[in-house]
Specification:
The chain is built from two helices and 16 strands. The longest helix is centred in the last third of the chain and has 12 residues. The protein starts with a strand and ends in an 18-residue tail after the last helix.
Length: 219
């Protein structure tokens, strides 16, 4: 899941999608049984220069969806709900929170939101999800400085006040079970990851359409 604050990226993948992404938009690629993709700065911006700033998350799939067909969804910035909660501007990028729903398709209960918290305001933490974490992009929440991830205990909802205007990403959901990760492969099964490693090494993954030349070897 890609979300930009500044800059632009061209997404291409092995199911034939080409999609630029710009600030406030959402690119959601569901890998499922396997997909290859590239993300590159557009040629015109390579000439003029640009600043790229954003966050990319990997979202675990429930086991019953791990081998689904790969897919890709794009959402315009205007599709993302924006509203005020106790002095904080909230953009609900994906999932549910504060009695609202994002149109972004997900496969499990979760919340992903961008929050702009005014000085002196308390970080609003939604109640729907068991696990929550906050990432301070800019500003400060009490003792938590910029570029720090705050992981809360299960069902914990502490009071965190912004000591300056703060830009925070809120991430959360319910546990899906143990996952294994190796390089770019994620699965609930270590054996499945071994199959993916072999397939990548043997060139069995489909090529990125329109970006077929470069190949990143298995580590």
């Amino acid at each position: 899941m890609t979300y930009l604050f500044d800059g632009e990226i061209n997404h291409r993948d092995s199911i034939g999608v080409f999609q630029p992404i710009r600030p406030g938009e959402v690119n959601w690629m569901t890998a499922g049984r396997g997909i290859a993709h590239s993300e590159r700065t557009p040629d015109e911006l390579r000439v003029t220069g640009s600043h790229l700033h954003g966050i990319q998350l990997w979202v675990a799939l429930p086991e019953e969806h791990e081998e689904r067909e790969p897919s890709f969804d794009h959402y315009a910035a205007g599709d993302i709900p924006q509203f005020e909660v106790d002095g904080t501007t909230v953009r609900l990028i994906a999932g549910t929170g504060w009695g609202r729903n994002s149109p972004v398709i997900t496969f499990s209960p979760l919340v992903y939101a961008e929050l702009h918290v005014e000085t002196g305001a308390t970080l609003p933490l939604c109640e729907e999800h068991r696990e929550l974490a906050g990432y301070v992009v800019d500003g400060a929440l009490e003792e938590f400085p910029v570029r720090q991830l705050i992981v809360f205990k299960d069902n914990e909802r502490p009071t965190l006040r912004a000591t300056k205007p703060s830009h925070v990403m809120l991430i959360g959901g319910d546990p899906l079970g143990k996952r294994h990760i190796w390089w770019n492969f994620v699965s609930s099964s270590k054996e499945r990851i071994e199959v993916a490693k072999r397939d990548w090494r043997e060139g069995k993954f489909a090529k990125v359409v329109g970006d077929e030349v470069e190949y990143v070897p298995l580590p």
